[in-house]
Design a protein that fits this description.
Helix content is about 75%, strand content about 0%. By secondary structure, the chain is mostly helical. α1 crosses α9 (about 155-185), α4 runs antiparallel to α11 (about 230-260) and α6 runs parallel beside α15 (about 365-395). The radius of gyration is 21 Å and the shape is globular.
Length: about 475
Amino acid sequence: MEKNSESKTLKKNAAGFYPLLGQSIAMISPLGAVAATMTGAAEFAVGSLPLAYIISIFGVLIWINTPYQFSKKINGTGGFYTFNSIGANPKFGLIIGYMMWFSYFMVITNAILFTSGVFIPGTILYFFKFNIGTYTWIPIMTAFLILITVIAYLGIKPSLAYSFTASAIEIILLVVTSVVIIVALGAKNTYVPFTPGPAHGFAAVAVGMVLAIFSMSGSSAVVTLGEEAKQPRKNIKKALLISFIITGVVFVLTAYALTVGWGVSKMGTFFQSSVPGLIVADKYVGLPFTILLFAFIINSLFAGSLAPLNTSSRMVFSMSRDGLGPKIFSRVHPVHKTPYMAIVIIAAVSYFVSLAAGLLIGPLDGFLYLVTASSAALFIGHILSNFGLAVTFKKLKELKIILHVIIPSIATIILAVAMYYSFVPPAYPVDYAIITAGIFIIATIIAIYLYGRKHADTISKAGTSDMSVQEEIYGGK
């Protein structure tokens, strides 16, 4: 297999285990997830929110089995694209690659819009009774995105160093806040939130669980750092697993603290409040600490926007390096060794998509539209990858029924249920988001099919550049 020229190779051995762990946790964005997704889960699970998160731990463990198993054998900048292109089928992998790229790209758009147009204005309005203005979110979002782009542009090391530091602080703040609330409540602590009673049955808990799973699902984004990681086969799967364990435990602890802090019987009003997590923190921990918490929630959302920019830029870089995307995306910065053109262009496009969504339908509905479109593509990409896993290990003659067939099948069922409860019945702006994701996916499949009819040889090279780098790392083993 032909080796990559150095000009199209990212910086090898740039990220050890801890930076990879930071990237994995940053994509989950713990504080940001508590502010956004956990609040959404509470709308359905209400006082049974901690139970929904306990169940979701098992769901996420099954979910991440697929990238965990793939990463034992295949690593590369393309992530799921490379997994499925090399392991299953090039055309199949390319379709999944663009689906997953779309999902991560839309994470950038919804994160920057939520931060600038929903969270910051909502917090200022609640605590200071001051409306910052209808369009003030635009300069906030502009500055936010410029900072993210600069950090991503300058290299994976500063990006991951920032992500790891931010993630560690977030985890500490969540644990401290939760413990203070629990201790302050004393005898008022109760086991009731760990039962379906407050939600009036398992049906509502199941819907809350879907959102809880989604809030912890970002750890798999670390697989796109296979080219830049030290000992990728060892460290990527390790980062996947440990980030899941850490965030799973912290989310259960936080869900319980916020539930009992707000009041188990009053959780029906939790979602309706603009910033319920900060309101509870202000009540039990005090305003100075709450302001600190607010600052780090912004920081969490910042890191949670930087991580998908790194991920999406590397995915499209990998596909373009194989000749299956715009050539401009395959350029590597001569000094920083980053896919700098992919980073800059993706950042610019995400800015205009977020701006359009915010202006046309408002920041809140715009956020819901963008996050739903991201979810749809993510769920479908993971479902297809579950099938690709079995095909891959059958080809390798290492197929294990439980790890490669049964667990992925359970994950597929969970994802199918998640899609149903997330998108049925469709309602504005969710229905438009589903249509958008559907159009993108169908257009991608048609384009790849038509391109493949005349360029079958190019399609057959999907994932080969990543494998060439992997051979350089492991000496062909």
